[in-house]
Amino acid sequence: MKITAARAAAFVKAPDPKVRAVLVYGPDRGLARERLDALTRTVVDDIGDPFRVADLTPASLKDDPARLADETAAQSLMGGRRVVRLLDAGDGQAPAIQAVLDDSPGEALVLALAGELRPSSALRKLFEGSPAAAALACYADEGMTLEQVVRDTLRAHGMTVGHDALAYLLEHLGGDRLLTRAELIKLATYKGDPGEITLADAAACVGDTAALGLDDLSLAVADGDDTRTQRVLDRLLREGTGPIPVLRAVVRHFTRLHQAAGAVARGASPDQAVGALRPPVIFKHADRLKAQVRRWDSARVGQALTLLLEAEGDCKSSGPPPEVVCSRTLMRLARAARDGAPRAPGRAR
């Protein structure tokens, strides 16, 4: 069976007793590992218990194809149900798991951990199609899911989070669940005493100066401040940030600007359009973004995004140096913000 995102948290806490095997997969390996361990703990208290938890790999099954079935059928020397975990699973292990589902006398819970799998994957099809198995996808936290992770993790340390600090954290976290939790625990340790996490706390502890510089650069470009654009860009390049990460950061900002401009085109005010963005805009940036929405209509933002995407392609070509392409493109957009619409999309040479 396929476990939907809405059912995932409840399933991990209390798996369906009819399910004998669970596939945990997806691009967020941190979240996948967290769920794998949580599912293990529904059967055993100690994941490291060698009598009740067996960790296997595809290499170990290649050397001994029957080992998965043997481990699933084995009884614990100390009593209690066992967990058999297949790490780094792939389509090559689908037949062995199918054999276990079809004919295995043991009561062990079989857990398979995999990376991103296409819908056509044999492993994914097996778990989604069997009434005795379940497939649980793990994608990067975002929106309300990420906000809940942030609030829950900090609450466990007796802390709350202010609006601007939350907006900053949502902007800079979420790519990997384990890394997100590690950053939040580091933040809680930095804060020390229970209380409210402020923007200053979050900025001092989560992310780095490069991330802050990219935010500053993106705002300067959309503001039309070409002097600051060049100064911040020079510093980022000098500190080792590559042209492509720079361009992608500006793309993210203009994508949010495009969402807000589209809302204005549908009748919303700039205040309403900016207020509706998710993750929410940091308070101290809100007025600047509202002014940018008034300056950039939806069509112009679309042209800007085209220029940025073309510039990334040019950075990967054998043309001018990537630093030159990046600088020309950002300066072109900053001047367009100040003087009027950018010229028709074309290569930044």
TrEMBL record:
<keyword id="KW-0235">DNA replication</keyword>
<protein>
    <recommendedName>
        <fullName>DNA-directed DNA polymerase</fullName>
        <ecNumber>2.7.7.7</ecNumber>
    </recommendedName>
</protein>
<dbReference type="InterPro" id="IPR005790">
    <property type="entry name" value="DNA_polIII_delta"/>
</dbReference>
<dbReference type="GO" id="GO:0009360">
    <property type="term" value="C:DNA polymerase III complex"/>
</dbReference>
<dbReference type="InterPro" id="IPR008921">
    <property type="entry name" value="DNA_pol3_clamp-load_cplx_C"/>
</dbReference>
<dbReference type="GO" id="GO:0006261">
    <property type="term" value="P:DNA-templated DNA replication"/>
</dbReference>
<dbReference type="GO" id="GO:0003677">
    <property type="term" value="F:DNA binding"/>
</dbReference>
<dbReference type="InterPro" id="IPR027417">
    <property type="entry name" value="P-loop_NTPase"/>
</dbReference>
<comment type="similarity">
    <text>Belongs to the DNA polymerase HolA subunit family.</text>
</comment>
<keyword id="KW-0548">Nucleotidyltransferase</keyword>
<keyword id="KW-0808">Transferase</keyword>
<keyword id="KW-0239">DNA-directed DNA polymerase</keyword>
<dbReference type="GO" id="GO:0003887">
    <property type="term" value="F:DNA-directed DNA polymerase activity"/>
</dbReference>
